[in-house]
Write a structure and sequence with these properties.
The complex is a heterotrimer of chains A (641), B (371) and C (392). By secondary structure, chain A is α+β, with helices and mostly antiparallel strands. Chain A folds into four domains: 8-168, PAS domain (Beta-Lactamase, 2-Layer Sandwich); 172-240 and 252-288, Beta-Lactamase, CATH 3.30.450; 355-448, no CATH class; 453-639, Histidine kinase-like ATPase, C-terminal domain (Heat Shock Protein 90, 2-Layer Sandwich). Chain A contains 13 helices and 17 strands. Chain A has helices at residues 3-68, 71-77, 85-93, 171-177, 208-217, 290-341, 355-414, 419-451, 463-474, 503-519, 551-556, 572-582, 606-611, and strands at 97-101, 107-110, 136-142, 145-156, 161-168, 183-189, 193-196, 221-226, 265-275, 278-288, 459-462, 486-491, 498-501, 525-534, 537-544, 586-591, 597-603. Chain B is mainly beta. Chain B is built from two helices and 25 strands. Helix content of chain B is 8%, strand content 46%. Chain B is elongated and about 85 Å long. In chain B, strand 8 (166-171) and strand 9 (178-184) form a beta hairpin. In chain B, helix 1 (31-46) crosses helix 2 (66-80). In chain B, the strands form six sheets. In chain B, strands 18, 19, 20, 21 and 22 form a five-stranded antiparallel sheet that branches. Chain C has 392 residues and is of the alpha+beta class. In chain C, the strands form six sheets. In chain C, strands 11, 12, 13, 14, 15, 16 and 17 form a seven-stranded mixed sheet that branches. Chain C starts with 16 loop residues before the first helix and ends in a 7-residue tail after the last strand. Classes of the chains: A alpha+beta (641), B mainly beta (371), C alpha+beta (392). Chains in contact: A-C, B-C. At the B-C interface, strand 2, strand 3 and strand 4 of B face strand 12 and helix 6 of C.
């Protein structure tokens, strides 16, 4: 992650965090304010309902009063009327239910269920209610079930008769109690009837928990209910064009569907309607949470908008700020990369007078020093390399020259011997001379080859095929002369591994690695060659189970003439590296003493080869090294035969 | 339309009576009935095992007179009697019922696990239709006054007249009726008032809606009034202690009752309070014990409330009534019709609101049994 | 009348109780039988003047009344002035059969129309709606006093009452419970003996025996009669009224709710689909009361709205003063077979009522309100109208 990105993120998070905090605080505060207001409205509504219920009860009591003094009821009480006369009495005073009962509460006449004459009145009226003056709630059995009504009792006529009358609680009845917009009243009546002034209650099961709580605790309880089917307050809202609720509205019906939003939520308070300790019903007052939800949503979106704007502004400011900060740094970085790539002539052009400017100046100074040191190092390495080359040449040439000298001296001495002996010695000596001259030629040829390795000829090849051919070429070595067999194992990439490379050079390089590995396993072992795709290029790994190398040896391994073997010119790995370098690849080694070594070659495909960073194909700078410590196992690269 | 009440001079609150159905008179049964009983006995016996003996109980659901019923029961017992050792009694319930064809003798042989039924019909011979006497209902003027008359009683040369607000004692010693004493009665004003005078020696009992007064009328009126009465307070109905509901009038005839109930129809009941018939078309009624038998004086239902009414004599028969005299025209609507107890029940007292004069006239209605 | 009668063909069967009862009243106006049953159920000569037993030919010979003409003027002249019937049955049965409307003497025209010999002829006939019967001038027993009788059919009680109030009818039917109320307004009423049995009729299958019996035990007949019918009618556990059979007391009417609950204790209650004519102001309150009674025993009576029901409250007419004929007609209506050769009507009725396939409740009279000019109701040939001004 770049510094600029970090700066941007920090500024964005800071802005967003601040906005989120403010938004949250405002949202909570507004919700609490809403809840307080709603609670107040609900209490007012409940008070209104209580008052309304009381007024309705008084009305019922007055109607029952009128019924009690009517002629028809008196006739019924006196036994001088027909069994269904109560219907007329009930209609006259506007009561839904009317029973005229005798002193034993046996029905003399029933308006709503005439066939029940003679039976006991079964409205579950408590004994003390028969003489009560107020109206009360009671459940009235009907042929088709039962109903709950506001009921009053009055004495009627002679013979200690009573008239019990009432009006049914219906949605219309609830409507007369009145309600404010955004509020509504429901009435729950045992065992499970739910009445809403606006019609049928959808999803009544969602009120069950609150109702059960009120029933079990016998006191007020509140809760929130989310409606997912339909907004119960949709009928109260005017349509967009100002039409009356319920009229054809241009608003789509989706406005009434609540499945997708939380807006159709309702805060409900349940109030138990008790009569002498027994629950007659539960009055539910609900207020729509739509406005609150809407406000919260507005706050949320506003906060989100502010946050996004803040972030955007923060991003812009941050970008401008970081741009000013990071541009010189980037320049510095770019130049540093150039320098790291080898171009020590690059300089940072930063003229600011702040810390970045100081840093740039210091960098430039460092780079100049590096250039000087590099040149001095190069010079020293060149001198060291020439010295090494001279030593090696001297060492290589010395070997064949000494036998040459001896042979020539022998030949001089042999001149003085017999012809036959001279001929014999002449023959032997000339043979030896020829061998040593050939040896010299070989040595010189190798040096010449190394000095003028040809440029690679790129062509499409299959790495796997090259590996196989290299193995085949050297497989005779795997079981040579007193050595245990070396087990070659190939783990080649499936389907071939096409790249663009010089087949011969690559085979030569692989051959050198194989020979090296064989030399590292004088008592046999396993040789593994693995190929795989590496990006768009190829990877070749040659592993052996030989003695392994130390870290220092790994570092010097690719230095020409560095060898850990007692024989060899030390050019093998250098040739490998040169080939790999010509192919714009990389070679590395991993090894630990006693655990073998693994050489890894990464070769690009032809495209990558063109994009290779400058300097990648350059020879690795020659390294100087100290002569190997006596007694250490040194390796080198066997020459190719 | 006025309502009246018929009193039994001997027992005002009697309940258990048996209605006399004249046409079902048992005088012609004789052998046929016994044959029916014998046949029934045979069929019952056929169901009894040798050691089983009948334990007979009986009930009468028909208008059969008690004497005939008892005779039937005795006859059947006799027919079923048998002597066995270690008798095993079996309950047998004899029910004498009736239908349009005659009597039905039903025997239920009741065992713990089953009840067998045998029945025998018995058709009595149709009653010999005796040539009916030509009966005539006559009226005799008694008294007239402007105020309403609820009841009137004549005892020798004195007359008591019950008015809505007082009772007046008249004396005819000088040849004309002159008021001798009067007693105001604190009776509440009632629509369609009614009242009744009961005289027993020197005692008098006055009944009115919601009030009754007792006391003496000789040598002078001395009455004490209470709030108990057989007349329903503020109504023109009557009520007995254990009779179902209120009624307008009632009368005892033979062993039966005539009750004019709230439906306006006169229902005929027997001793077990079972309905034996209904008579429609009567307004007021009074049962008289004439020389030619107990008869009902009844006024015809007036079409309009204050139209003149007629009165006629009726016999109760065939679950209904048969008119046995020509209708007697009356000069106005009848406001009261009672058996005239002061005449041993031979006559009826009718009070008419004269159409022409507007006065209230009291008439005695008598039965002329003819030749 | 409430019933809607489609035709007065005496031989046409009907399984509608109301129509059967109405036809029993209308058919004799137009068509006559050889014998008729009197008020005591005894056969009396009618179109046959006498009958003798011809042992030799094993038949009964019924001498026919002379000078009988059909309404179309044709003479009724059986061969030799007599009609015979084989003597393969007791004469009582033969006479009873001959008294049945289906054995009336009719003249059937080629177009299928019927002509009778009765005191009235059919002047106009709108099936199910109205009929006008005109006096037959040449009636053998004397022309009826009335020139014609118009009967509106299919009229509920309320509409008939409205017709009476507006003077459109002289005589209208009245529900039994209302027999007393018109008295207070001065109208005259006439009622018969109990000639209709209100009963619960079950479907032949589908209702367990115990449930039927439980329902029978739960009904409070006394309250129905005393309150709903205003004491008009009689509580009865029998199909035939006491005046006809005399033995109706043998069929129990006692209410036993505890026993009813016991019968249903294994099933824990039951539900019955219940049907009745809701327009019938007599049946409806009785049906509602029965439902209330049944609920005490744990039986829920649910009103059937689609016509199919397990139990119905029906009016069963008593069509004859002969108990055998009445029972036979009832058996046909109830679709219950009478036993073979029952010893007496009680045995036959006991078989009909066994198993509680039908539960009689009460027997009610028929009643009419009469205008003030109507005299001698209900025998139409003897009815006449007072010429005086109507004060109705």
């Amino acid at each position: 992650m770049t510094f600029r990105t970090k700066l941007l993120l920090i500024s964005s998070f800071t802005t967003a965090g601040a906005v989120a905090l403010v938004t949250g605080a405002v949202s909570i505060a507004s919700r609490r304010a809403f809840e307080r207001v709603d609670a107040g409205r609900r209490e007012a509504l409940l008070d209104q309902f209580r008052a309304g219920l009381e007024a309705q009860g008084k009305d019922v009591a007055q109607r029952v009063d009128r019924a009690a003094v009517s002629v028809s009821v008196k006739q019924i009480a006196a036994g001088a009327a027909e069994y269904d006369s109560a219907q007329q009495a009930a209609e006259a005073v506007g009561l839904d239910f009317l029973d005229v009962v005798d002193a034993g509460h046996n029905i003399l006449s029933s308006a709503h269920w005439p066939a029940r004459f003679g039976y006991q009145n079964d409205w579950q009226i408590a004994a003390e209610d028969w003489t009560a003056s107020d109206a009360f709630l009671a459940r009235i059995p009907l042929p088709e079930g039962s109903a709950v009504a506001l009921v009053a009792v009055r004495p009627a006529g002679a013979n200690n008769a009573y008239v019990v009358g009432g009006r049914r609680l219906t949605p219309e009845f609830l409507k007369t109690l009145g309600s404010a917009p955004g509020m509504r009243a429901l009435l729950w009546l045992p065992p499970g009837e739910l009445i809403d002034a606006q019609g049928a209650v959808t999803q009544p099961e969602r009120l069950a928990a609150l109702i059960d709580q009120v029933r079990s605790e016998g006191r007020e309880a509140s809760g929130a209910v989310r409606w997912t089917a339909q907004d119960p307050f949709s009928a109260q809202r005017p349509a967009r064009d100002g039409a009356l609720p319920g009229a054809a509205s241009p608003l789509p019906r989706r406005a009434a569907l609540c499945a997708e939003s939380m807006e159709c939520s309702e805060a409900i308070v349940g109030l138990p309607l008790l009569r002498r300790g027994s629950l007659m019903g539960v009055l539910l007052a609900g207020t729509s949470l739509r406005e609150q939800m809407s406000l919260e949503r507005t706050i949320l979106w506003t906060g989100l908008g502010v946050a996004l704007s803040g972030i955007a502004m923060g991003v812009l400011l941050g970008w401008w700020t970081t741009e000013r900060i990071t541009r010189p740094v980037r320049r510095l970085v770019s130049v540093a990369q150039t320098v790291a790539a080898g171009d020590l002539s690059s300089r940072v052009d930063v003229r600011s007078r702040d810390e970045i400017g100081d840093l740039a100046q210091a960098f430039n100074q460092m780079t100049e020093q590096l250039v000087e040191q590099r040149e001095r190092a190069l010079q020293a390495e060149r001198v060291a390399a020439w010295r090494e080359l001279a030593r090696r040449l001297a060492h290589e040439l010395k070997n064949p020259l000494f036998p040459l000298q001896i042979t020539l001296e022998n030949l001089q001495r042999a001149r003085g011997q017999s012809v036959i002996d001279f001929n014999e010695i002449f023959r032997e000596s000339t043979g030896t001379l020829l061998e040593e001259v050939a040896n010299l030629k070989t040595i010189i040829g190798r040096f010449s080859d190394f000095a003028k390795m040809p440029a690679p000829v790129f062509e499409p090849i299959d790495v796997n095929e090259v590996v196989r051919s290299a193995i085949k070429l050297h497989e005779a070595r795997f079981a040579m002369n007193g050595r245990s067999a070396i087990e070659p194992a190939l783990d080649l990439a499936e389907g071939g591994l096409p790249i663009t490379a010089d087949r011969d050079q690559l085979r030569r390089a692989l051959g050198n690695l194989i020979l090296n590995a064989v030399d590292a396993m004088p008592r046999g072992g396993s040789l593994k060659v693995r190929t795989a795709r590496a990006g768009q290029g190829a990877r070749i790994q040659v592993s052996d189970s030989g003695e392994g190398l130390t870290a220092e040896e790994c570092g010097r391994l690719f230095t020409p003439y560095y060898t850990t073997k007692q024989h060899g010119t030390g050019l093998g790995l250098a040739i490998v590296q040169s080939v790999i370098s010509d192919h714009h690849g990389k070679i590395s080694v991993e090894s630990e003493p006693g655990r073998g070594a693994t050489f890894t070659i990464d070769l690009p495909s032809s495209q990558e080869a063109q994009r290779t960073a400058p300097g990648a194909g350059l020879e690795a700078p020659l390294k100087s090294y100290d002569s190997a410590a006596p007694g250490s196992v040194v390796r080198g690269v066997s020459e190719e035969t | 339309m006025r309502r009246g009440v018929c009193y039994d001079a001997n027992d005002f609150v009697a309940r258990r009576i048996l209605l006399l159905f004249v046409c079902m008179c048992t005088c012609a049964r004789g052998d046929s009935f016994d044959e029916a009983l014998r046949d029934l006995a045979k069929r019952i016996a056929a169901h009894l095992a040798p050691l089983e003996t009948p334990l007979l109980t009986a009930r009468n659901l028909s208008p059969m007179p008690p004497s005939d019923f008892t005779r039937a029961q005795t006859s059947l017992e006799r027919e079923l009697r048998k002597r066995v050792r270690n008798p095993q009694p079996v309950e047998i319930l004899l029910t004498i019922a009736d239908n349009i064809r005659g009597y039905l003798l039903v025997a239920e042989i009741r065992r713990p696990n089953e009840t067998l039924v045998e029945m025998e019909e018995f058709r009595p011979d149709p009653p010999k239709t005796a040539p009916r006497q030509t009966l005539v209902l006559k009226k005799q003027f008694l008294w007239e006054q402007d105020e309403g008359i609820l009841d009137l009683a004549m005892v020798g040369s004195q007359m008591l007249v019950l008015e809505p607000g007082r009772v007046v004692l008249y004396d005819s010693g000088s040849g004309n009726w002159k008021p001798a004493d009067a007693s105001a009665l604190d009776f509440p004003a009632v629509r369609d008032p009614r009242g009744r005078l009961e005289i027993a020696g020197d005692s008098v009992t006055i009944q009115a809606p919601g009030r009754s007064c007792t006391g003496i009328w000789k040598p002078a009126l001395d009455l004490k009034c209470t709030e108990n009465s057989e007349f329903t307070p503020a109504r023109n109905t009557m009520e007995f202690g254990d009779w179902r509901g209120v009624f307008y009038q009632s009368g005892q005839i033979g062993g039966g009752y005539l009750v004019q109930e709230m439906d306006g129809r006169v229902h005929v009941y027997d001793e077990s309070n079972s309905s034996r018939g209904v008579v429609d078309g009567w307004g007021d009624l009074a049962v008289v014990n004439s020389a030619c038998g107990q008869l009902v004086v009844a006024t015809g239902a007036g079409v309009a409330r204050n139209a003149p009414e007629t009165a006629a004599l009726y016999e109760i028969a065939d679950r209904g009534a048969i008119r046995v005299s020509e209708p007697l025209d009356l000069p106005g609507p009848v406001t009261a019709l009672w058996p005239a107890l002061w005449s041993s029940g031979e006559r009826a007292l009718a009070v008419v609101h004269e159409e022409s004069s507007g006065k209230y006239s009291a008439y005695a209605l008598t039965v002329d049994c003819g030749r | 009348m409430r019933a809607s009668v489609k035709d007065v063909d005496p031989s046409a069967p009907s399984d509608d109780p109301e129509v059967l009862g109405a036809r029993a009243a209308l058919v004799p106006l137009v068509f006559e039988t050889l014998v008729r049953l009197d008020e005591r159920g005894d056969p009396k000569p009618w179109l046959a003047t006498s009958w003798t037993h011809d042992r030799e030919h094993k038949r009964w010979v019924f001498s026919t009344r002379p000078n009988i003409t059909f309404h179309d003027g044709s003479k009724w002249s059986p061969p030799d002035g007599a009609i015979t019937a084989p003597d393969d049955r007791p004469i009582e049965q033969i006479l009873r059969d001959l008294a049945r409307p289906r054995n009336a003497i009719v003249s059937r025209a080629p177009d299928g129309s019927l002509t009778g010999t009765g005191p009235f002829l059919i002047a106009e006939w709108e099936p199910g709606k109205s009929a006008r019967f005109a006096a037959y001038d040449a009636y053998w027993s004397g022309r009826p006093y009335l020139d014609s009788v118009v009967i509106q059919m299919g009229r509920p009680y309320a509409e008939q009452a409205a017709d009476f109030q507006t003077g459109r009818a002289d005589v209208v039917e009245i529900a039994a419970r209302d027999l007393r109320s018109p008295r207070s307004s001065g109208a005259a009423t006439f009622s018969t003996r109990s000639t209709e049995t209100l009963a619960l009729q079950f479907e032949p299958v589908g209702v367990p025996d115990a449930l039927r019996e439980a329902l029978a035990l739960s009904i409070d007949r006394g309250a129905i009669r005393d309150v709903l019918l205003q004491k008009q009618g009689e509580v009865s556990g029998a199909l035939l009224p006491p005046w006809l059979s005399g033995y109706s007391f043998l069929f129990p009417v006692a209410r036993n709710v505890a026993r009813a609950r016991e019968l249903l204790s294994s099933s824990g209650g039951a539900t019955l689909a219940f049907a009745y004519d809701r327009q019938d102001t007599v049946l409806r309150p009785i049906a509602e009361r029965i439902a209330v009674n049944a609920s005490e025993a744990g039986i829920a009576m649910r009103n059937s709205s689609n016509g199919s029901a397990a139990v119905r409250l029906v009016r069963l007419p008593i069509t004859s003063t002969d108990p055998w004929i009445a029972l036979s007609d009832l058996a046909t209506l109830l679709k219950i077979a009478l036993p073979e050769n029952p010893a007496n009507p009680y045995e036959a009725e006991k078989a009909l009522l066994g198993g509680f396939q039908v539960i009689p409740i009460v027997q009610i009279p028929r009643g009419w309100i009469l205008s003030s000019r109507v005299r001698n109701w209900p025998n139409l040939p003897d009815v006449w109208l007072d010429a005086g001004p109507s004060t109705q």
